[in-house]
Each structure stands twice: as structure tokens, then as C-alpha cells.
Amino acid sequence: MERTFAIIKPDAVAAGQAGEIIAIIQKAGFRVAGMKMRRLSQLEAEGFYAVHKERPFYGSLVKFMTEGPVVVMVLESADAIKKWRDTMGATNPANAAEGTIRKRFAQSIERNCVHGSDAPETAAVEIPFFFSTSELL
């Protein structure tokens, strides 16, 4: 079993889509090992997205991720990272496959409703950013 990190972003939470997204996650065969709703502080968002600090979209990404509550999750399944990325769909919803979360719910490439770790090394950093070992079941 592999674990990956996921976020339901502020746009989807504000639109009341978190429940539908969680249902899709469970129907796709993931086990939710940890989940909580919270609002990211400016410092948390800057730290979490520090890898993008030099990119032109960094400031707008941090602003977006702090505008409202998010749902952070640890998902578990065989090949969880690839499976979650396939379930999410392409970052740009215009390029996302039919039936994916982003095709169904995302507004734009920046307001794309969900986040997922892109590699085991990324998941190893992202999961403990939000969850202690004792919080994961």
C-alpha cells in the first residue's frame, strides 16, 4: 500500500463540492487514512508551496490557498500517487479527461479544485506538513 497527500482547495470547498469529491475518492478505492478541514495561514501556504517560489504564479497561488477553508487528506491504496493523479485529471481542466475531478469541478488552471503529490518524495514531505504520525489511521 502506498500513501499520497491530497487537498480539496478553497474553490471546491466554497462551492460545496467537498462531499462529492470525497465520495469520488472512496468510489475510486482509496482508504482515507487522515482528513481534516482547516484554513491555511499565509506562512503555511508560503511554506507548502515554497517549491514554486520563483514561478510567476506563486503569489496568486498563496493568496488563493488562504482565501478559505481546505480539506487536507492522506489517501492510501496500491499505487496511490499515480491513481490519485489519474483521478484528479490534468492540472488544466480544459485538458482533463472526462470523468476526472478537475474536468467536473475545476474552474481554471489556477482554480483547479484539488492537489495531489506528484511523487513518493513529494508525498513524504507533504504528508507530515499537515499530519503527525498519530493522526493517521
Search tags:
alpha+beta; 4 strands; Alpha-Beta Plaits; four-stranded antiparallel β-sheet; 137 residues
Describe the 3D structure:
- The chain is of the alpha+beta class.
- The chain has a single domain (2-135), classed as 2-Layer Sandwich (Alpha-Beta Plaits), CATH 3.30.70.
- It has seven helices and four strands, in the order E-H-H-E-H-H-E-H-H-E-H.
- It has helices at residues 10-14, 18-27, 42-48, 58-65, 80-88, 101-105, 120-130, and strands at 2-8, 31-38, 70-77, 114-116.
- It has a four-stranded antiparallel beta sheet, sandwiched between helices.
- The longest helix is centred in the last third of the chain and has 11 residues, at 120-130.
Annotate the secondary structure layout.
Elements: E1 2-8, H1 10-14, H2 18-27, E2 31-38, H3 42-48, H4 58-65, E3 70-77, H5 80-88, H6 101-105, E4 114-116, H7 120-130
Antiparallel strand pairs: 1-3, 1-4, 2-3
Q: Kindly, what is the distance between the CA atoms of the first and last residues, rounded to a whole number of angstroms?
A: 13 Å
- The count of β-strands is 4
Along the chain, the helix and strand elements come as EHHEHHEHHEH
Specify the CATH architecture. 2-Layer Sandwich
How many helices in DSSP terms?
7
Largest sheet: 4 strands, antiparallel
Low-confidence stretches: none
In short:
With 137 residues, the protein is α+β, with helices and mostly antiparallel strands. It is built from 7 helices and 4 strands. It has helices at 10-14, 18-27, 42-48, 58-65, 80-88, 101-105, 120-130; strands at 2-8, 31-38, 70-77, 114-116.
